[in-house]
């Protein structure tokens, strides 16, 4: 453990349900927002590194008030929160002087301890860009210097940094506690056609996720995976062929769930719309779906519950859901 933040043991941490995490660069520091009912008084510091966390006891409740608390006390040029898990751990970085060499990645535990992540494997080689933090406390990062693939690394407190291997693509949508990596999409040539589809990488094994068939029973040639839960269930969208009156064919994007490698069209599970997109899923199977209606042409977001019911969300900016819904 590297103690890079003095006086961190007295730092309060949020105890409410964490719904989302946002990085805010304000006066060159990040801040933590907790509901007023959970706040503990503490003197402010005008030169502190902090993390902005929005914590809610209920996302749909109104008039939630917050107080700001700092969680670190070091002189920094800039800083950012990258990821937050269900155990209250935070992955982030700070920069001491604004230079490339001044950037340092860290994981902060809920107990206040900070662990600095190495920039390179065994201190040598390529720079690692740490991006993901899973609920088992593992941080994942990539080397992105190759144009067609990324090299995946993992860090934990027991084993340090381990190189896992080359990924089949560069756009990572998520990593779960099983070590499964969701690649948003890869392109392949099949029968003279370019097929775009999401894939799951797991310790070198690649599983391709087939797109929806649509009205004509023809597999989609364009699909994307945007989020994955700890069960390996994936949500995203597929472009499907829809048959209208007079045998008119149109191609629209439908929200899609992949479960046990089988796909499910979620488009008709939410209010009528032109296109839809499933953007997040939790371990309970609750899904956030964004829809686009012909009347407004704007996006609306719904919480599609596992029981099939749906609730319209008050904000169109919601893009993640935790295990408490």
Q: In percent, how much strand structure appears in the residues?
A: over 45%
What is the rounded distance between the termini? 33 Å
The whole-angstrom Rg is: 21 Å
Largest sheet: 4 strands, antiparallel
How are the elements arranged and paired?
Blueprint: E1 18-21, E2 32-35, E3 53-55, E4 66-69, E5 78-84, E6 90-95, E7 103-108, E8 114-117, E9 120-121, E10 124-127, E11 129-133, E12 139-143, E13 151-156, E14 160-166, E15 172-175, E16 181-190, E17 193-202, E18 205-208, E19 223-228, E20 234-244, E21 248-259, E22 262-265, E23 275-281, E24 287-292, E25 299-304, E26 310-312
Antiparallel strand pairs: 1-3, 2-4, 5-6, 6-7, 7-8, 9-10, 11-12, 12-13, 13-14, 15-16, 16-17, 17-18, 19-20, 20-21, 21-22, 23-24, 24-25, 25-26
Walk me through what this model shows:
The protein has two domains: 8-166, no CATH class; 181-312, no CATH class. Helices cover 0% and strands 46% of the residues. It is built from no helices and 26 strands. It has strands spanning 18-21, 32-35, 53-55, 66-69, 78-84, 90-95, 103-108, 114-117, 120-121, 124-127, 129-133, 139-143, 151-156, 160-166, 172-175, 181-190, 193-202, 205-208, 223-228, 234-244, 248-259, 262-265, 275-281, 287-292, 299-304, 310-312. It has a four-stranded antiparallel beta sheet with strand order 5-6-7-8, with no helix packed on it. Strands 11-12-13-14 form a four-stranded antiparallel beta sheet, with no helix packed on it. A four-stranded antiparallel beta sheet has the order 15-16-17-18, with no helix packed on it. Strand 25 and strand 26 (310-312) form a beta hairpin. The two termini are 33 Å apart.
